[in-house]
């Protein structure tokens, strides 16, 4: 019973656990740090596997390094052997070698939602991985394991190699054709705000007001982490996608305008979540 909320997780039962696989943002707004804040806000336990480190603030990224695949493998084993997970979010995927390691490990997860937010550039425009070999590995290895891919329009064009495509519906269908169960294209409406969801059968437009607070650093990370947490808690996909957008939209509107001198971070404290 979900008490009419559409959420089947038992509030008195064991807490849902989510794992984020991504990179550190020293500024605390995006990446692993943003994901863990979003997990906490959504009421799930958060674990993390760090695959890279960025020197970053609200103005941009000044240096990056990736973590060796051996250490990534140790982290995955440590989390999965003991804590386990009810949802996985994948963010920055630096190299083909790292991606194939993730495929090798995640293929054994049984019926656990996997959300892929294929980060290639930050909100401030800095490059965060994603060379051609890595894009091929995402297409051939990760997308077939993915429940929901959440690229923005630019990332969707790169993933599908439909560089001129402007229609989010076509891009979403192409991503599902590549193997993902569903595609949720973020910020899909020029001039408006909202996302385009193709659930594998039907298209859904998720729209809302466009916020102009200047606080959107970490919006994409918060969005995909919330989506992962909602799915881990048993929320149906369309409702999870709508709730994630609405929550992030408020987090932009009521963002951390006092933090940093560039694109300020989102602040996930506003609004109420459905539990
Ligand atoms: N100005 C805005 N007003 C309202 N909602 C927004 C705005 N910008 C983005 N969003 C919403 O925020 C969520 C994240 O989308 P976005 O496209 O910013 O992710 P992204 O490009 O992956 O971000 P990032 O660069 O942080 O990874 C989506 O639900 C999107 O609709
Ligand atoms: C580490 C990291 N991951 C993801 C993003 C996406 O915004 C970012 N800016 N930094």
TrEMBL record:
What's a Pfam family this protein contains? Phos_pyr_kin
- Could you tell me what reaction this enzyme catalyses? 4-amino-5-hydroxymethyl-2-methylpyrimidine + ATP = 4-amino-2-methyl-5-(phosphooxymethyl)pyrimidine + ADP + H(+); 4-amino-2-methyl-5-(phosphooxymethyl)pyrimidine + ATP = 4-amino-2-methyl-5-(diphosphooxymethyl)pyrimidine + ADP
Domain Pyridoxamine kinase/Phosphomethylpyrimidine kinase: start-end pairs: 25-266
Kindly give the Gene3D superfamilies that the UniProt entry links to this protein: 3.40.1190.20
Q: Which GO terms describe its cellular component?
A: cytosol
Its pathway, per UniProt, is: Cofactor biosynthesis; thiamine diphosphate biosynthesis; 4-amino-2-methyl-5-diphosphomethylpyrimidine from 5-amino-1-(5-phospho-D-ribosyl)imidazole: step 3/3
One annotated GO molecular function: phosphomethylpyrimidine kinase activity
Q: Which InterPro entries match?
A: HMP/HMP-P_kinase_dom, PM/HMP-P_kinase-1, Ribokinase-like
Q: Respond yes or no to whether keyword Transmembrane helix is given for this record.
A: no
Q: Give the GO terms filed under biological process for this record.
A: thiamine biosynthetic process; thiamine diphosphate biosynthetic process
UniProt keywords (A-Z) are: Thiamine biosynthesis
Q: What does this protein do?
A: Catalyzes the phosphorylation of hydroxymethylpyrimidine phosphate (HMP-P) to HMP-PP, and of HMP to HMP-P.
Protein name, per record: Pyridoxamine kinase/Phosphomethylpyrimidine kinase domain-containing protein
């Amino acid at each position: 019973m979900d008490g009419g909320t559409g959420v089947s997780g038992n509030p008195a039962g064991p807490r849902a656990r989510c794992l984020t696989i991504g990179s550190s943002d020293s500024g605390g707004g995006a990446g692993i740090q943003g994901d863990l804040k979003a997990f906490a806000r959504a009421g799930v336990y958060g674990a993390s596997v760090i695959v890279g480190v960025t020197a970053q603030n609200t103005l941009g990224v000044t240096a990056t390094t990736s973590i060796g695949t051996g250490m990534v493998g140790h982290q995955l084993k440590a989390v999965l052997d003991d804590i386990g997970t009810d949802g996985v979010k994948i963010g920055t995927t630096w190299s083909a070698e790292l991606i194939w390691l993730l495929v090798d490990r995640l293929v054994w997860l049984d019926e656990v939602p996997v959300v892929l937010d294929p980060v290639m550039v930050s909100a401030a425009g800095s490059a965060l991985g994603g060379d051609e070999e890595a894009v091929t590995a995402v297409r051939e290895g990760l997308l077939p394991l993915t429940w929901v891919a959440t690229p923005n329009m630019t990332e969707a064009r790169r993933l599908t190699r439909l560089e001129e495509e402007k229609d989010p519906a076509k891009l979403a269908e192409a991503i599902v054709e590549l193997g993902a169960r569903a595609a949720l294209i973020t910020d899909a409406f020029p001039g408006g705000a909202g996302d385009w969801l193709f659930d594998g059968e039907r298209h859904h437009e998720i729209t809302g007001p466009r916020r102009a607070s200047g606080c959107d650093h970490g919006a994409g990370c918060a969005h995909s982490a919330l989506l992962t947490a909602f799915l881990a808690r048993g929320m149906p996909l369309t409702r999870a996608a709508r709730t994630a957008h609405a929550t992030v939209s408020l987090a932009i509107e009521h963002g951390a305008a006092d933090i940093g001198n560039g694109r300020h971070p989102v602040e996930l404290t506003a609004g109420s979540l459905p539990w």
